[in-house]
Write a structure and sequence with these properties.
heterodimer; A: 293 residues; Chemotaxis Receptor Methyltransferase Cher, domain 1; Rossmann fold; 3-stranded antiparallel β-sheet; 10 strands; B: 17 helices
């Protein structure tokens, strides 16, 4: 039973100022990063802000809003703000509705289109892949989707990140229970082997489907190293960029995504105001961008 | 199918005696609201006949549904604050849910899902109307959203066996609901729904919007309203609130209904942020759930 839904009744704001300031911060974050906190998630926004407000010795959300906007040292604050708003942790099969759309309609669409042309290859790029959970999840989803037809296809999955240390962890493919918290027992039994200390290692044939490499999205030379892809995942990464770099990265992605290919951003991220090149497709529980054929 | 045959089917649905009729209160209220002579006093008198309804109106007025900061304590202030059209909207909504909810629970489908879809669609259509500046259509959009699929209930009630086949066609053979229904019954739920609404003496603008909610561009008089429902229906599906319909993803900007809404929008040069609207739908869905709970008296 859902009762007392009005957000303002749920949280313990002393006055309307606080509530209004929070909404202003919400809008600021959306306009700056494309990351959206809906009314139902405002209390989570508030929780994520409070350690930052305390660290800065500020007394209220309102003060923090003014700090963000007008204080000279507030200029660098957006970086801290975005840091505290996204959890950098990752896990296998994160954001199920997006992955369901990927494994279902998106793959069907690509498989049909490519099958018709006799081009049986798929290239997937996972940007900001951290310790590899996302690209390995995608490998498993593709493998399960293609089943016995897998051998007919040439599958290339690339995991890219700016941090060399996460990439070396990703290459090892060893994960703890926490990384696997959204993973069914069936998947664990089928695609992982126990690696001691309650850890699991991804099996070699999945590991070999994924290649990892360094990528700095802000660096043009580095960006030139990426090849055309049918699908790009870049979830919760662009929020750290300013508008100009965001636009240029998105334009570059648009360029390298094959016609008919797809682009996934984080589940509460948006390209609104950043690019009008992609078509926005509504899937059950997920928004996905598509480059028209 | 000839006009004659359709007439026959319409009669077969229209003559079902067990078909629910709208409570007198709601029917009287529709009449009163249509009459320019009626005053808020007349409405208050009418509503006093039904204390349960009056209390639900107050609960809804005080809920997140409207988000007023001040407590609305009595019927006259509710009428003053909300206005006649809004109160009519609530009474109609509550009556519709009361009328069908319990009986739909006995049917062979997930009635909770059906009502969440219907109320979700109602609320989203209303929010969409507001966003687009269609203030005249806001309340109608809510009412039509709530009953746009009511034909499905009639089919499941009076054509039980065929309804089972219809579900199979949708789930296993990739039929749309309309195609499945037409292939078995000769008509679809949208047409049946509009007949029911006619029977309840709903205004023509509403019945036509129900009839064309799957093909809004074919509507002559209610294109805008039908489009609002059509697009709200898709947003519902994007929020995983679909009911007996396949949804394989859609680019709504390609949708004819969306084009109608965009072209007739009263907000010129307004670039609609579909992403933000979609992210904000969680709240609309919660309000929809709340509307159902208060209507049924299951809110605590």
């Amino acid at each position: 039973m859902i009762t007392n839904l009005s957000w303002s009744k749920q949280t313990s704001f002393e006055n309307n100022h606080e509530c209004n300031s929070l909404i202003k911060i919400r809008d600021f974050v959306y306009n700056q990063s494309g990351l959206y906190f809906s009314e139902t998630k405002l209390d989570s926004l508030q929780k994520k802000l409070s350690p930052r407000i305390e660290a800065l010795n500020l007394n209220s959300i309102e003060e923090y809003y003014y700090y963000l906007l007008y204080d000279p040292s507030g200029k660098n604050e957006t970086k801290f703000l975005f840091d505290s708003l996204t959890n950098n942790e990752t896990s296998f099969f994160r954001d199920a509705p997006q992955l369901k759309a990927f494994q279902g309609q998106v793959l069907s669409d690509l498989i049909d289109a490519k099958g018709e042309k006799g081009h049986k290859s798929l290239r997937i790029l996972s940007c900001g892949c951290s310790t590899g959970e996302e690209p390995y999840s995608l490998a498993i989803l593709i493998l399960e989707r293609l089943g016995k037809h897998l051998h007919e296809w040439h599958i290339e999955i690339k995991g890219a990140d700016i941090s060399h240390s996460v990439l070396s962890t990703a290459r090892k493919g060893i994960y703890n229970q926490y990384s696997l918290r959204n993973t069914s027992e069936r998947i664990i039994n089928q695609y992982f082997t126990p690696a001691g200390n309650d850890n699991f290692q991804i099996k070699d044939y999945i590991r070999n489907m994924v290649h990892f490499s360094y990528l700095n999205l802000r660096d043009e030379a580095s960006m030139r190293t990426i090849y055309p892809a049918d699908v790009i995942f870049c979830r919760n990464v662009l929020i750290y960029f300013n508008e100009t770099s965001k636009k240029s990265v998105i334009a570059k992605f648009y360029e390298i995504i094959n016609p008919g290919g797809y682009f996934f951003v984080g589940p509460s991220e948006s390209l609104f105001g950043l690019s009008r090149s992609f078509k926005l497709i509504l899937f059950p529980g997920a928004l996905v961008y598509k480059k028209e054929v | 199918m000839t006009e004659n045959e359709i007439q026959k089917i319409e009669n077969s649905f229209g003559q079902i005696e067990t078909l629910p009729t709208l409570p007198t209160l709601a029917a009287d209220l529709i009449m009163l609201a249509e009459n320019p002579q009626s005053s808020l006093g007349d409405i208050a008198l009418l509503l006093q006949r039904d204390p349960a309804m009056a209390s639900k109106i107050l609960k809804i007025a005080n809920s997140a549904f409207y988000g007023y900061s001040k407590q609305v304590n009595n019927l006259p202030s509710a009428l003053l604050i909300l206005g006649l059209r809004e109160v009519k909207n609530i009474v109609l909504g509550v009556s519709i849910i009361n009328l069908f909810y319990s009986s739909s629970a006995k049917l062979s489908f997930d009635h909770k899902k059906f009502w969440m879809h219907s109320a979700g669609c109602a609320q989203i259509a209303r929010a969409l109307a507001f966003k687009m500046g269609f203030f005249e259509q806001e309340l109608e959009a809510f009412t039509v959203g709530l009953i746009h699929d009511i034909g499905k209930i009639a089919i499941s009630q009076f054509q039980k066996d065929k309804f089972k086949t219809i579900i199979q066609l949708i789930q296993n053979d990739n039929y749309t609901s309309c195609d499945a229904e037409t292939s078995l019954l000769g008509v679809n739920h949208a047409q049946i729904g509009s007949w029911l609404a006619e029977k309840w003496l709903f205004p023509r603008s509403l019945t036509e919007a129900i009839e064309y909610h799957h093909q809004p561009y074919e509507s002559v008089n209610s294109q805008k309203l039908a489009s609002l429902i059509h697009i709200a229906d898709i947003f519902c599906k994007a929020k995983d609130l679909s009911f007996l319909e396949k949804f394989d993803g859609e680019d709504i900007t390609d949708n004819q209904g969306w084009k109608i809404i965009q072209e007739t929008s009263l907000r010129k040069n307004f670039h609609f942020d579909i992403e933000r609207f979609t992210f904000g739908l969680d709240e609309e869905i919660i309000k929809a759930q709340q509307f159902i709970n208060i209507s049924r008296g299951t809110d605590i």
